[in-house]
Design brief:
12 helices, Aspartate Aminotransferase, domain 1, seven-stranded mixed sheet, binds D-malate, 2 domains
Length: about 400
């Protein structure tokens, strides 16, 4: 008889964003004609930037000619894209080896897949509230999770507790869902903690492009010692609007080497390469050509313009909340606004209230963990006019 992975009994019935989509679809069906504005999932709304479109078109043409056609590509990504990402990291002072960069179809899949490299009996440290993928993937594998409280008291930036022993540590900065950003000193404390325990930090940098202050770290590798203890994930979804195009990358430094129980050594870089060559056939050539344009001078300028548009939306939301005296975090170096639910409402109660009374969709903070209860996330990734309209509707309620 097949033995099934019983750990799946321990995850919630459905993924947070699928749950929300279902509720909104039901509401729309029951209330036809309502103009619903979605500021829930962090999905982009602007079309792909011209540089990326040109790159994609060129690549499609190449695929139409026998001399420039591409079949299977390297599982790790084409050299032209790895080299472009390498150059991008140099712009914020990080020197990588090009083959430490693995191109993928996005940060979400890699964050889930990386768990293949770690034994089940590791203890995992995860902030709460948090992007649900870190939690769900480890529950699916049956690992022990310790949650660290992120709350108003620590500005949603939990710091290492020497009394807690962890082997794998998930950090996300700028943070999803709270928008909070670690400074260099705080990240250094995490790196020191990880090194002292031979632990590995899994650093989600998906929102690095939203950092508008050069003193804040855009990569964990700007911190001394990080190459000894950290894997970094990033995505073009948020940097350049690739949510529907799918391209990201993961950096696995060669210095991440651990002792094996047989006295040998285990290199996480070699293992990830082995895993990817076995289970992944790479990102389509066409998509990688589009992605490479993002790291050209003109591409960076165009991507920056998009990010500024979304930050402009976040400011519209933030200004409305400030005017109404509603406390919130984020929205400056992040597309996300993490607001306290008005009138002491619970997260899902406020979700329903806002949907029914303003036809605006957000994400209930409780969906990100117990510390998210009573909080609510709004995203700046919407359309400008719809964001303004959503805030005008919101203003009438409070
Ligand atoms: C979110 O809304 O938290 C993100 O869009 C989810 C994701 O990037 O997978």
């Amino acid at each position: 008889m097949a033995k099934i992975n019983e750990n799946y009994q321990n995850v919630k019935d459905s993924y947070l964003f699928s749950d929300i989509a279902k509720r909104v679809a039901n509401y729309s069906q029951e209330n036809p004609g309502r103009q619903i504005i979605k500021l829930g999932i962090g999905d982009v709304t602007l079309p792909l930037m011209p540089a990326a479109i040109a790159g994609l078109h060129d690549a499609v043409d190449e695929m139409s000619r026998a001399e420039t056609f591409h079949g299977y590509g390297p599982e790790q990504g084409y050299d032209f894209l790895r080299s472009a990402i390498h150059g991008y990291y140099q712009t914020f002072g990080v020197e990588l080896e090009e083959d430490e960069i693995f191109v993928s179809d996005g940060a979400k899949s890699d964050i889930g897949n990386i768990t293949d490299l770690f034994a089940v009996d590791n203890t995992v440290l995860i902030p709460d509230p948090v992007y649900p993928v870190y939690v769900d993937t480890n529950i699916m594998n049956g690992r022990k999770i310790i949650f660290m409280d992120a709350n108003e008291g620590n500005q949603f930036l939990p710091m290492p507790d020497p009394a807690v022993d962890a082997d794998l540590i998930y950090l996300c900065s700028p943070n999803n869902p709270t928008g909070a950003v670690y400074n260099a000193g705080q990240l250094k404390a995490w790196v020191d903690y990880a090194i002292s325990r031979h632990a590995v930090i899994l650093f989600d940098a998906a929102y690095e492009a939203f950092i508008g202050d050069d003193s804040l770290p855009r990569s964990i590798y700007t911190i001394e010692g990080a190459k000894q203890c950290a894997i970094e994930f990033c995505s073009l979804s948020k940097t350049a609007g690739f949510t529907g195009t799918r391209c990201g990358y993961t950096i696995v430094p060669k210095s991440l080497v651990f002792e094996a129980s047989n006295g040998g050594t285990l290199s996480l870089h070699k293992m990830w390469n082995r895993r990817q060559t076995t289970k992944f056939n790479g990102v389509p050539y066409i998509v990688q050509k589009g992605a490479a344009t993002v790291f050209t001078e003109e591409g960076i300028r165009q991507a920056h313009e998009m990010v500024n548009y979304y930050k402009g939306n976040a400011k519209i939301i933030a200004d409305t909340l400030t005017e109404k005296g509603i406390p919130f975090f984020g929205g400056i170096h992040s597309p996300y606004i993490w607001m306290k639910c008005p009138n002491n409402m619970k997260s899902w109660e406020f979700f329903d209230y806002l949907l029914q009374n303003a036809n605006v969709v957000g994400t209930p903070g409780a969906g990100f963990g117990v510390n998210g209860e009573g909080w609510f996330r709004l995203t700046g990734f919407g359309d400008r006019e719809k964001t303004k309209e959503a805030m005008a509707r919101f203003s009438k309620l409070f």
